Amino acid sequence: MITKDKLPHIISLVDDESEEIRDYVIKDLNDYGTDLESDLVEFSDILNLKNLQAIKPIIEKNRRQWLLANWKNWYSPFSELEKIEVAMNLISKFQLGILQQTPLTIKLDIIAGNFLNLYPYGNEMDLSHYLFQILNLKGNKDDYYNPLNSNLYHTFETGLALPITLVLIYILVADRVGLKVVGCNFPGHFLAKIEVDGEMLLIDCFNEGKIVFESDLEDLSEEAREALITIINTPLSARTIIKRVLSNLINAYKEKEDVVHQQFFKELMLSAPLR
Fold this sequence. Notes:
The protein has helices at residues 7-12, 19-32, 36-40, 49-70, 80-96, 104-118, 124-134, 152-158, 163-176, 222-233, 238-255, 259-269, and strands at residues 138-139, 160-161, 182-184, 191-196, 199-204, 210-213. By secondary structure, it is an alpha+beta fold. It is built from twelve helices and six strands.
């Protein structure tokens, strides 16, 4: 098995003219283990597009092995919100690898601190305005099935995501500043639910924090209104939310015709603690 100090030499042979040497190198890199990606950071100057493409399948395989080994950790004895945050951090690290240079928790802490500096006595509506107007977090309507739309860290970088990803950012930042936001499995797409001055409000985070008032439901038929009220008032567990996130990832990889990752997340959906 090769050691870290031998990586520069091995990487230089990835695109060697000899097929025999290339096969030997790929085998060595396959045997290196899940530390390959992080160890390569030290030798980033020797990486180029061609050899990165050659080792990409190995890095992706390592990430899958890493996530499988660590997946059950999110359901340790945490609160429901802590479970969600740990699970989303695992997904983010899986998708981004070494590109995620700051822990998700720190990113959320920074946003919460910046909000408090701007709104020392802010409420849930102020936080919605801050996230979806000032920071301009919004739905990725042009590339809806991009798997990274389920990635909280990536959302902070691009400002774009799926409805549930944006709601989870709203929920997790709110918790840090002493506010309460919960998720709502509303038909169509995921919404946030808050209460302001005794009135329940739904926030459409995908559409820049658009407000849906409880009174807006009065135009519906009684049967439809009662069904929606039941959905709105049903508490969502961390397990339910993470299942929804994984379902979105399965659909996203299917749309991208990435059968390997589509199947991988199907298997993850059936694994403990979700089965």
